[in-house]
Design a protein that fits this description.
By secondary structure, the chain is mainly beta. It is built from four helices and 23 strands. Bound molecules: beta-D-galactopyranose (GAL).
Length: 376
């Protein structure tokens, strides 16, 4: 009996990527494309609720809580979709990759997510923002829109200030760019133009497209929204206001025309590391990795950090978040946990989770497959 209990205790202390992860009701955790907030001594996992037959949002953003990252309590729906016709978050919209950060000044929990308006496929390409007084919610939806209308990325400007004039050479290039000139996509000329800002210019007035995303709070308390923009061809990193509810207007482009999605980020010994995916929808592809000495770049690309079976397909998954643990390094396998989703588009609620420790080899992050591992 004692042996059985011990076995049981060991089994529940382990992370088993790709398997069913029951919550405290015995139901597979339904929090996809998610992220984690640590508040006090509790971890809160927020993610997309997926139903059995569609990936459209029929419920909203779910929240689970845990003290040990292994046993999860279902806290229910943190942000509910709306039954009001025409609401931005009307039931049946697409609401993906929610992330929550805590603002110590306003004492509010701030949720950002990728939002597509109901019935419009992936055309809206907006971010949405919601806020709550308690980590598990309920979250009140505030607004949705495209990113940074009327502002250029900082590297286009003479100074890194929002209203600074364009650099003369950048202006000369932008003047030549016109999306209507290109009949064909994916030609070398088109890719060059995208890299130079073809879509930034096209969307300057309405705001930049905003799809797959994460949030990052730096050591100095500044927060950033990192998202796939420009038809998913270029990542943007946009600074948030002090209340974490808006963009300041300062943003930078990462890997222009590089076609990256699913950004996840952490900082190790002063270097920012970002893991992303390519753009193949729900189908897995090879992870990419970038590093930079500052959040503002310059960002350098490195080889795929995954090691093990299906390493060229991110083990069958797609990145969603990297959790930085604040426990001392000696008590855990790694201070960083790479989190990914194994999507099941034909049975979305059955999608699985990959959580793996990030190790360092030759100074670079490596994500090695493990069937099971202990968080502690
Ligand atoms: C993926 C993206 C997911 C979802 C999906 C839809 O590339 O990362 O969040 O949007 O496409 O096909």
């Amino acid at each position: 009996m004692l042996c059985q209990l011990l076995l049981c205790a060991t089994a529940t202390a382990q992370i088993r990527s790709g398997e069913l992860w029951p919550d405290d009701n015995g139901q597979h955790i339904n929090a996809h494309g998610g992220g984690i907030l640590k508040y006090g001594d509790t971890y809160y996992w927020f993610g997309e609720h997926k139903s059995d037959h569609t990936s459209d949002a029929l419920v909203g953003v779910t929240c689970y809580s845990s003290k040990d990252l292994v046993n999860w309590h279902n806290c229910g729906t943190a942000l509910s979709v709306s039954d009001e016709r025409g609401s931005d978050i009307e039931r049946g919209c697409i609401l993906e990759r929610p992330k929550v950060i805590y603002n110590p000044v306003t004492k509010r929990f701030c949720m950002w997510f990728h939002l597509e308006l109901k019935g419009r496929g992936y055309n809206a390409a907006r971010y949405g923002v919601a806020v709550a007084r308690r980590p598990e919610g309920p979250y009140q939806f505030l607004y949705s829109q495209r990113a940074n209308p009327g502002t250029w990325p900082v590297e286009f400007l003479t100074e890194r200030a929002v209203a600074a004039p364009l650099k003369a050479d950048t202006k000369a290039v932008l003047d030549t760019l016109d999306a209507a000139h290109f009949r064909e996509s994916w030609t070398p000329a088109w890719l060059k133009a995208v890299g130079e800002g073809l879509f930034v210019k096209r969307d300057f007035g309405t705001g930049q497209m905003s799809r797959d995303m994460t949030l990052y709070v730096d050591d100095d308390g500044r927060a950033y929204h990192i998202f796939s923009s420009e038809e998913n061809l270029t990542l943007h990193i946009a600074e948030l206001t002090n209340d974490y509810l808006h963009h300041t207007g300062r943003y930078t482009r990462v890997a222009p025309a590089g076609h990256n999605e699913a950004p996840a980020i952490f900082k190790h010994e002063g270097t920012y590391w970002m893991i992303t995916s390519g753009c193949t929808g729900w189908a897995p592809n090879e992870a990419r990795m970038f590093s930079a000495p500052s959040i503002w770049g310059p960002w350098t690309q490195h080889p795929n950090p995954c090691r093990g079976p299906k390493q060229e397909l991110t083990f069958g998954g797609q990145s969603t978040y990297i959790l930085t643990l604040d426990a001392p390094l000696t008590t855990v396998k790694s201070r960083y946990i790479f989190m990914a989703d194994i999507w099941r588009p034909r049975h979305p609620s059955d999608a699985r989770y990959i959580w793996l420790p990030i190790e360092f080899e030759d100074g670079k992050p490596v994500v090695r497959w493990r069937d099971t591992w202990d968080v502690k």
